Amino acid sequence: MNKKNPFEESIVERVLLEEGEVCDWRRHFLNAPRETIGFFESQACKWNERFVWARVPRIVSYCNQYQREKRPYSKRQIEYSIEFLRQLGIVIRVKGVLWQGARRNGWVIVPHDAVCDRFGAVLPDGKLGWECKFQTGPKMPIVGEPDLMGQPGGGYVKVRTPNPQVRTPNV
Fold first, then answer.
1. Could you list the pLDDT tens digit for every one of the 171 residues in the chain?
2. pTM
3. Count of beta carbons in the 10 Å neighbourhood of residue 72
4. For the chain, which terminus, N or C, has the lower number of CB atoms within 10 Å?
5. What is the extent of the structural domain holding 117?
6. Is residue 76 left, alpha or beta, with left meaning phi > 0 and alpha meaning psi from -120 to 50?
7. In a domain, 145, yes or no
């Protein structure tokens, strides 16, 4: 018997955006995966290499249940969320990266626009806007494994990703 992953229900594949709104990873998830990817994205955007060096207890301290008086999620829930995001190909685990002068284990976070497409859409109120669609399952493109460069004094993580495809609405 195949057991369904409960986090699969937390995926929001289609996000409708008004003109000028920006989509990010947090809009495509609910609950613990939303908080987890929110932490990862807040750290990854600081570096071109999108490398995040953080242990699970630190991640847990940033992930709160807003519907339940801002109690933190449990360590196990965050570990499951990280594994779920890894299975989706959004989070890539890397080990032994030379980062800021020391060998570190961490994650590389795939950019939102490398996996999601934007299309012109008509919003429920009749205005023109955008639809951001997260490609899950077998249609999700392979964005490549991180290219680790371990030269002395250097050592950055680079993820090869395609350019985002932005389509204008047909008027």
1. 456 677 888 888 889 988 888 899 999 999 999 999 999 999 998 888 888 988 899 999 988 887 767 788 899 999 999 999 999 889 999 888 887 888 888 899 999 888 888 888 888 888 888 889 987 654 344 444 444 443 333 333 333 333 333 333 333
2. 0.73
3. 15
4. N
5. 6-158
6. alpha
7. yes
